[in-house]
Amino acid sequence: MQGRKFSEMLDEAVNRYTNRSLSTAEIIAELVKLAKEMRDAQQRHEELGLRDDEVAFYDAVFQNDSAVLELGDETLKAIARDLVKSIRESATIDWNVKDSVLAAMRSKVRRILARYDYPPDAEAKAIELVLEQAELFAGEAGQPRADHHWRPNIPYRH
């Protein structure tokens, strides 16, 4: 949802400028701020020691406080790596519209989370976030479309 967040921030700034809520200098300042945030988000994968694609899945499983406390950062990174590997191996053309393939993907994600003792109270939300990322990931990795570029779509927390 990171890409969506940046898009919404840009749209909001442009709308405020168009509605004359922002001056030219203020819109430039907003755009500079947005560019810095985007740069920081791009550098984040290096700080975490994860690839770009792994960061989105890391963020999906990082959303739960009990998971962070119980499992720790390194385990969540391992989960993210396993999720990316499993999704790469499993994603097929139109997998997200085929119920049987989607159910199998959901089952694989559930098994990976269970293998690492991911807290059950947050499992359902994590699975949904992971599948959302998987859909975007498969769109770029396996089925490129001219109108779609995969970007992490989950806001990260500090």
Number-wise, the strands total 0
What distance lies between the first and last C-alpha atoms, to the nearest angstrom?
16 Å
- The low-confidence runs, each spanning 5 or more residues with pLDDT under 50, are 142-158
| Radius of gyration, taken over Cα atoms and rounded to an integer in Å | 18 Å
Share of β-strand residues = under 5%
Query: In this structure, how is the largest beta sheet organized?
Result: none
Tally of DSSP helical segments: 7
The share of residues in helices is: over 70%
Topology pattern, helix = H, strand = E: HHHHHHH
Q: What's the rounded overall pLDDT mean?
A: 78
What general outline do the C-alpha atoms trace? elongated
Structural class label: mainly alpha
